[in-house]
Design brief:
Mean pLDDT: 91
Low-confidence stretches: 1-6
Strand order of the largest sheet: 1-2-3
CATH architecture of the largest domain: Orthogonal Bundle
Strand content: 15-25%
Radius of gyration: 22 Å
Oligomer: single chain
Largest sheet: 3 strands, antiparallel
Number of helices: 15
């Protein structure tokens, strides 16, 4: 069954009193809808067949569940030492189990004193080069294990979760309003996108109708966030190749957008805007028009920067045919967002599974076919241009009316919320009990999907290419280590 699905993948586990619930979520292109595959286990049963050999995108999901819940996926080629590192934790902790009290510190740890990095390359002269976990171009701790027998990197193993925060566990037992604060703090650079996904999940549970003005303004703000993120990604790529002037120009544009965000909404990173049923503030029509005009000025400068970069041979030499990921690999690993679209996988949640009125907005979903670093750079430029187009369109025709539905009346239930965050598809599943108390909250971020496939680009290229390839992926450690 799984091998016949041309869908992207997400997975979650729910521990109930009488059974385990394993939910495999698949989503495809326009009109394909959602497919939820459910399987149940007895509460005393901790073993389930792995699907990772059929759906490789499930690989990291199963490893995460094994570490956090203690379920064992039979047939999985590598379990353990994932979220809870074996050199810092012992097996069997299972912090996501209901019996684990997240309010109490773990006072006794029995880590594996004999742990050492797993080396896969066994040729004569092979050696492992560790980088990190403090790494200059990453915004959080990540340990790269690079294996080689010469100048080229043969194997890359990113070791993440040094900053694992247990946000899903923190949400349990809290009210739904608290989850909004948690979602915004998954990643500051995608704060509004994640809060919007949670809002939509709760709104589905409570059958809330979001006012048309709020739906339009949600799009306006979401595209503002996407534009700012993509400009920052372009800055990072320029910096990784040593183009200090180009990086500075992009940095100035990012700062312009951050200041504009603050003037428009009161927060540089758009915190505090999302709420169930709409937005917390009403953005004035004239303010939206002024912001759209300023965004168009930024777009003109960004376009000039792109033209200059496109004729810089030394810059292009560092990106073209470097860090290649094929369309088949991107689909197999479940890559999302601009990274997947640079390899020809053109799925975008705004088109594939429209939300908040995106189906009524004219815009294109750019895609490239080369799958190299230059294709990923072009994706950031092309998607930024589309965001400017959407901002201008929406800003000129925001419907009148309220920006928030009447006070929410919470009810028990479960629902999935989704968005096309700046880095790609983000899924938030939430189950509410009585009075809006959270029973289970599941976060699937685009960085989790794209970190899984990062090694595809970094392997079989020279060591000096590694930081550049990393920059073209625009990954977030914090968004992964949720």
């Amino acid at each position: 069954m799984f091998s016949d699905l041309h869908y992207s993948f997400g997975g979650l586990v729910v521990e109930q009193l009488t059974r385990w619930e394993l939910r495999y979520v698949f989503y495809g292109g326009p009109g394909a809808g959602w497919l939820h595959v459910l399987t149940h286990l007895a509460p005393s049963d901790y073993r389930v067949p792995s699907v990772s050999r059929l759906v490789h995108a499930a690989d990291w999901h199963e490893r995460e569940v094994e570490d956090l819940f203690g379920l064992v996926f039979e047939g999985h080629p590598r379990l353990g030492d994932f979220v809870l590192h074996d050199d810092a934790w012992h097996e069997g902790v299972a912090p996501m189990r209901k019996s684990f009290d997240g309010r109490q510190p773990v006072t006794h740890r029995a880590p594996d004193q004999n742990w050492k990095p797993r080396q896969i390359v066994e040729e004569a002269g092979a050696f492992l080069m560790p980088i990190g976990p403090i790494y200059a171009t990453a915004t959080g701790p990540v340990h790269f294990q690079l294996e080689t027998v010469g100048e080229d990197v043969i194997r890359v193993q990113p070791r993440l979760f040094y900053a694992y925060r247990g946000l899903e566990k923190i949400a349990e037992g809290r009210r739904a309003e608290d989850v909004l604060l948690i979602a915004e703090r998954i990643s500051a650079t995608s704060a509004f996108a994640h809060s919007l996904a949670v809002c939509q999940a709760v709104e589905r549970i409570c059958h809330m109708e979001v006012p048309p003005r709020a739906r339009a303004l949600r799009i306006f703000v979401a595209e503002f966030e996407r534009l700012r993120h993509h400009v920052a990604a372009i800055e990072g790529i320029c910096e990784s190749t040593g183009l200090a002037v180009a990086a500075a120009q992009a940095s100035i544009l990012e700062e312009d957008l951050l200041r504009l965000s603050c003037v428009l909404t009161g927060h540089r990173y758009l915190f505090g805007l999302g709420t169930f049923g709409g937005l917390t503030i009403n953005l004035d029509d004239s303010a939206c028009n002024r912001a759209a005009a300023q965004v168009r000025e930024v777009a003109e400068k960004l376009s000039r920067l792109e033209r200059m970069l496109s004729i810089s041979s030394s810059f292009l030499d560092r990106l073209e045919e470097v860090g290649h990921v094929s369309a088949g690999e991107a689909g197999d690993f479940g890559l999302v967002g601009p990274i997947a679209r640079a390899s020809g996988v053109s799925r975008d949640m705004r088109k594939a599974q429209p939300y908040s009125g995106y189906d009524q907005i004219e815009f294109e979903v750019p895609h490239e076919s080369e799958g190299d670093g230059y294709a990923r750079l072009r994706m950031f430029f092309r998607e930024a241009a589309q965001s400017v187009r959407i901002i201008s369109t929406v800003g000129q025709a925001v419907p009148g009316g309220q920006v928030r539905a009447p006070e929410v009346s919470f009810r028990p239930g479960a629902a999935l919320g989704w968005v096309e965050a700046p880095r790609g598809a983000a899924l938030h599943w939430i189950r509410l009990g009585e009075d809006g108390v959270v029973d289970r909250y599941r976060i699937i971020t685009p960085s989790f999907a794209n970190w899984h496939g990062f090694r595809l680009a970094a392997e079989n290229f020279a060591f000096q290419d590694f930081p550049i390839i990393l920059a073209t992926f625009a990954l977030s450690v914090h968004e992964n280590d949720r």
